[in-house]
Specification:
Elements (H helix, E strand, L loop, with lengths): L1 E7 L11 E8 L4 H7 L7 E3 L6 E2 L4 E8 L4 E6 L3 E7 L4 H10 L24 E2 L2 E2 L4 E8 L4 E6 L20 E11 L11 H6 L6 H15 L7 E5 L5 E3 H10 L5 E3 L4 E4 L1 H7 L6 E2 L2 E3 L6 E4 L5 H19 L8 E2 L1
Parallel strand pairs: 2-5, 3-5, 4-20
Antiparallel strand pairs: 1-2, 6-7, 7-12, 8-9, 10-11, 10-12, 13-19, 14-16, 15-16, 17-18, 18-19
Bound molecules: flavin-adenine dinucleotide.
Length: 335
């Protein structure tokens, strides 16, 4: 366990805003959480920080950031068709994907190159190219800061949904995820139904695990700005889910508007398309802007504060609402 005070956060958030945390505690072994939360100076205000790829700091964080650093991957079970691994929260998500692909294990490949830690993956049920973390998560291990107990939840108990889970709802501010069990398939099961993935995979010679991973990485690199060069947190907004009647009314005015079936009686709209058609793609406001190739992504051109990003986000939300009457909400966690 390591503890630092007045710690700079610039390198710990992908927007690269220059804020500080009053205290940050790194833990390697989940048992260290017993000590951190049981002792006299247990943090009253705290927040779990993974890789900081989905967090916007809008000021100094006055509490304690809890940062998992455990990096183990262990095989827990195996049969003819599957392998179950337990992965510690501090493992880089893409390192785990690479680990699976190298061993011929199917299920994680479409989620290649999503930045962040394994511990954060169940929180918003990360997803891309027609796959979601929930498709391979078997069990999530956590420390409950209310009961001070270590426990685990099955996939069903996590209440996964689109960019959503129990960790964003009932267990928000309560659970610290320490490890996740993933069940991968040994049987080839390519999932190429999404966007231009199939064409990219074919151009590499067919649907092998390695080709799918390379295709996903290539598409992502061509579409998304590199956080090392241009601070951003990926998609800043969630795709809004609206009543089908609302989608139908919009489609009557905008027949080319993309929309996808969601839960019963509802449809998912593409926030990027709405932002683009509201005239905000490429819009710049001082040191921040809407990316000119990917309207869902807000970027820090250098020196922006979290407040600058939030002012831009509000302007984008207003423009979309004024044109379409649809409210788009941040996917990013604002602190
Ligand atoms: C360029 C770019 C592209 C992206 N593309 C995608 C994409 O395609 N699909 C997608 O779904 N997301 C995408 N994202 C968002 C991001 O990758 C995910 O949200 C990822 O899970 C963040 O991981 P992190 O470790 O950085 O989490 P953080 O940003 O540190 O934290 C995110 C949230 O999870 C909580 N959290 C983190 N670790 C734990 C833990 N161990 N226990 C409990 N809570 C925890 C935090 O408190 C916070 O609420 C992208 C981000 C960027 C910058």
């Amino acid at each position: 366990m390591k503890e630092y005070t007045n710690h700079p956060l610039r390198a710990l958030n992908s927007f690269h805003v220059d804020e500080y945390a009053a205290r940050i505690i790194e833990f390697d072994n989940p048992d260290e959480l017993d000590t951190i939360f049981a002792r006299e100076n247990a943090p009253e205000q705290w927040y779990t920080l993974g890789g900081g790829n989905n967090i916007l700091f809008t000021g100094r964080y006055e509490g304690t950031l809890i940062h998992p650093t455990g990096r183990g991957i262990e095989v827990m079970a195996e049969d003819d068709s599957s392998l179950t691994i337990r992965v510690e929260a501090g493992v880089e998500w893409d390192d785990m994907v690479a680990w699976c692909v190298e061993r011929g294990l199917w299920g994680a490949e479409n989620l290649s190159l999503i930045p962040g830690s394994v511990g954060a993956s169940p929180v918003q049920n990360i997803g891309a190219y027609g796959a979601e973390a929930k498709d391979i998560i078997e069990r999530v291990y956590l420390f409950d800061t209310h009961t001070l107990q270590h426990c685990s939840l099955s996939n069903d108990e996590c209440h996964f949904a689109y960019r959503d889970s129990i960790f964003k709802r009932e267990l928000r501010g309560r659970a610290i995820i320490t490890a996740v069990d993933f069940k991968l398939s040994k049987i080839a099961s390519p999932n190429l139904g999404y966007g231009d993935l199939s064409r990219e995979v074919e151009s590499r010679g067919g649907a092998t695990l390695q080709n799918i991973r390379e295709a996903v990485c290539a598409i992502r690199r061509s579409k998304l700005p590199d956080t090392a060069i241009l601070g951003n947190a990926g998609s800043f907004f969630k795709n809004p889910i609206v009543e089908s009647s609302v989608a139908d009314a919009l489609l009557a005015s905008y027949p080319d508007m993309p929309s996808y079936p969601a839960t019963e009686g509802r449809r998912k709209l593409a926030a990027g398309w709405l932002i683009d058609r509201a005239g905000m793609k490429g819009h710049r406001q001082g040191s921040v802007g809407v990316h000119d190739r990917q309207a869902l992504v807000l970027v820090n051109f250098g020196g922006a504060t979290g407040g600058d990003v939030m002012a831009l986000a509000a302007a984008v939300q207003e423009a979309v609402y004024a044109k379409f009457g649809v409210r788009i909400e941040p996917e990013v966690n604002v602190l």
